[in-house]
Amino acid sequence: RRPPRSTPLYSSAASDVYKRQVFASLDAYEGSYVDGVASGQGRYCGADGCCFEGTWQENRREGRGRLTVPGEGTWEGVWRNNKQHGTFVLTNNKQIIKKVQWENGVRMEDEDVKDLPGSSIQFSKLSHVLL
């Protein structure tokens, strides 16, 4: 998902540098803007509870980031042109649950790792590697 170009219900700043916006859908974006679009570091949360935190370029996820999905966990990896690309790691309760290989938004291969030795790598250790 990406921040819509609609008029926000609430905006914390008048400039295009850093804003917090809440949209009519109750989705919210907080982060950097360039020329009126999300660019740089930011966090987008949907009314459904899903949140993406990472790098944006012209309203698209671009670069490293985290997608947190309620009831599932947190996916960490790289986005290209708003699509997953490369290895994504799913963590839940600070344990690695799954690794998934993506290519331009197409899910290529899954690897369940929750039952493998060493799969309880702490989330904080994983974070410095991926982000």
Question: Can you put this structure into words, describing what you see?
Answer:
This protein is 6% helix and 56% strand. The protein is built from one helix and eleven strands. It is globular. Strands 1, 2, 3, 4, 5, 6, 7, 8, 9, 10 and 11 form an eleven-stranded antiparallel β-sheet that branches. Residues 116-131 have low confidence and may be disordered. 21% of the residues are buried. With 131 residues, it is mainly beta. The chain has one helix at 123-130, and strands at 10-11, 18-22, 28-34, 37-45, 51-57, 60-69, 73-80, 83-84, 86-92, 95-103, 106-112.
In summary, what is this structure?
The chain has 1 helix and 11 strands, in the order E-E-E-E-E-E-E-E-E-E-E-H.
> What is the count of DSSP helices, taking H or I runs of 4+ residues?
1
Taken in chain order, the helices and strands follow as EEEEEEEEEEEH
> For the CA atoms, what is the radius of gyration?
16 Å
Distance between the termini: 20 Å
Low-confidence stretches: 116-131
Percent strand: over 45%
Shape: globular
Counting DSSP E segments of at least 2 residues, the number of strands comes to 11
Instruction: Kindly report the average pLDDT value.
Output: 79
Instruction: Tell me about the largest β-sheet.
Output: 11 strands, antiparallel
Helicity, as a percent range: under 10%
Q: Which class do the helix and strand fractions yield? A: mainly beta
